[in-house]
Amino acid sequence: MNIQSILIIAGKEFRDAKRSRWFLIISLLFAILALALSLLGLAGLGSIGVAGFSRTAASLLNLVLLIVPLMSLLLGAMSVASEREQGTLVTLLAQPVTSSEVLLGKFLGTASALTATILLGFGLSGLVISWYGDIAELRSYLVLVGFTVLLGLASLSVGFCISIFAHKSTAAVGVALFFWFLFLFLSDLGLMGMSIVFRLPPKYLLWLTALNPPEAFKLAVIGALHGGLEVFGVAGRYAMDVFGDWFVLFLGGILTLWIFLPLASALWLFRTKCTD
Amino acid sequence: MREEMILEVKKLTKRYGKLKALDQVSFEVRAGESIALWGTNGAGKTTLLRSVLGIIPYEGEIEVMGFRVASQGKEVRRRIGYIPQEIRFHGDQTVWETISFYSRLRNVPFSEAEELLSDWGLDGIQHQRVQTLSGGMKQKLGLVIALLSNPPILLMDEPTSNLDVNARYEFHLLLEELKHSGKTFIFCSHRASEVLKFADRIVVLKSGVKLLDGKPKEVKDYLKGETLRRLLDEGVSVLDFEVESKLR
Q1: What is the rounded average pLDDT of the residues B170-193?
Q2: Is it the case that residue A262 has pLDDT exceeding 90?
Q3: Record: contact B92-A97, CB cut-off 8 A
Q4: Which residue, among B115, B140, B121, B120, has the nearest Cα to B130 in the 3D structure?
Q5: Domain assignments of chain B as residue spans, ordered by start
């Protein structure tokens, strides 16, 4: 594996993302919404103070849950599928590079652009919070930022996996939207239904919840804000009993697995499938 | 493998599900030779070129200059310049960005790439966006990219099919120059004139099977036979072949 080739492709992907109108609009939207939510969250209290951050963080959490997986899934899903559709993939693969270098380069470049967007949005909002809020809340804020990046990369990785299968970018976008819907809505509804019908014990409920990337993100951030998972009821108390203060790391580990496993599958599939 | 052998294809088979796009195709190419892959749409020409490049999985064996495509694809691609049927670039990039990207991937100093651009008459359009180039210019740019790092082998997939008469004529002149410089050509074409002009040998494919492998004259003689005449349809029609021969 040649690192230089990966970096060359990653650099091109990063520049392409910066130029993409669609990506710029979403990034701008995310930054504006994050900034607006921070200002509204703080101003809504009537007085600016320590309590401001929790409210702002809760609003930002919901914004992240909606926008970041959607943006990342779409970016990932379009990556290989659109190149294949446009016919540029063949020219790229005909160069002295391996399919793994191409895919890793594309992932690295897109992941950098995505991370830059997330950091820009949170940077603006962080400035507002630190200006009016309490610096003591910094740790919780960093957990929110860190887990947002993890959630973004995990969704991007799933998007790349989708992209390998899809021959047309429209199909890739369709499947990505389905996964977004599945992650955000069906899993919640499904879990609620299952827990009632099968009377799921807390252990299974916790695992089923934590294995869904947006849910793992939500658990980690709310847990960090409240200093524990008791707010999630029986499953939360069970998680605290089992993992104690390590639950944030445990959830971070799950999201990291969501980055590496789909990416590894995408690499394997791309190597065996390539331009077929 | 003998020293002068630059490409060896042995029992190449490619399946797409139940369909065999290539079926036990074997042939060899010597250094400096120019081979035309001839056949109708779906004959397996593009699949064969992509297999030689190692960008699709296949059964059988392919060796390029002593390197096995299946396990040493990167080394193989270092020695091959490829021009696809419809050359596509990232449209929002300029010619300079495009060349810079591919020259870095091929580990070629940009000064050499610039020289190549100038040699092929593209030095005045470096800051133009690729999407604004004409078909002929795009194809020329594709050729420049294929020639970065001066590979000894050129694979071309219907390189002139999307060009108008003038652009095609100009492209033919470039190819002629390259042929005289000793490059090995493996190309697909529907055009009999192109095949006759550039091919030292013709490999005729039909539904993934190699029907013939011979010099243009031998292929023409074979084509007089009714059996083969029936096997080939209008894409490689005998009439076209003969008319073009007379024009030669």
Answers
A1: 83
A2: yes
A3: no
A4: B140
A5: 89-150
